[in-house]
Design brief:
Blueprint: H1 7-20, E1 25-28, H2 39-50, H3 55-69, E2 73-76, H4 79-85, H5 87-96, E3 101-103, H6 113-121, E4 125-127, E5 129-130, H7 136-145, E6 150-153, H8 167-180, E7 186-189, H9 195-204, E8 208-209, H10 213-222, H11 228-241
Parallel strand pairs: 1-2, 2-3, 3-4, 5-6, 6-7, 7-8
Helix pairs in contact: 1-3, 1-11, 4-5, 9-11, 10-11
Length: 246
Amino acid sequence: MGGDPNLESSYKIVAATIKGGADMVELGVPFSDPIADGRTIQAAGNRALLSRTKPRDVIRLAQLIKKDYHVPVILMTYYNILFANGVDRMLDEMRRAEVDGIIVPDLPLEESVELKRLTRKKLIDLILLAAPTTSPVRLVKIANSTSGFLYLVSVTGITGARPNVKKSSLNFVSRAKGLVKGKVPIAVGFGVSEPEHVRSFIKAGADGVVVGSAIVDRVSALNGNSIMYDEIERFVSLLKSATKIN
């Protein structure tokens, strides 16, 4: 979450994840009504808002990360933020900051046409989500409209670390893999919090995994302790090792 607990710490947290082996960085833009997020990310968003983090602060943070680390940076935001600040203007700022993609979880496929047109024009990927309840026909439509990758929501619900991976989640990944037929990479998120989860999803056919709440939980628990960055780097390195299937 950009700005949690403050922007300087956010930069160091991102640096730790990259040193641990993260291939991409997803930065959350704090929002007061994050309907897709569980307690962990909601609390992180509240902390960021209390530190007076604005959307443009997160864009500037993304720009700094790109400059220093040259990894893809994705912003996770809500449509209200884009709309309130001017969609075209916000996308222009993101493009200048070299943001690679955006995730807008409250924007359904049918309403994404205009944003898709604008993001394509600005050379920014619009990454769409599909859930276990998504029908096969609709999933194919989403896969044909997404860019960058297809984000599979592994569970029916909101973000948050979970103790284990359901067989139905693995089946969903395998099913989606068959429907997408290699047209776009597949990444799985929501609930992924352990190396074994990562290993299971990669074996099921995922090209990547998204881990958010498990990292933010460590930010909250360690609360700026001097070992926080080392712990995050260590944790991410374990997750990355789990992607390497022989």
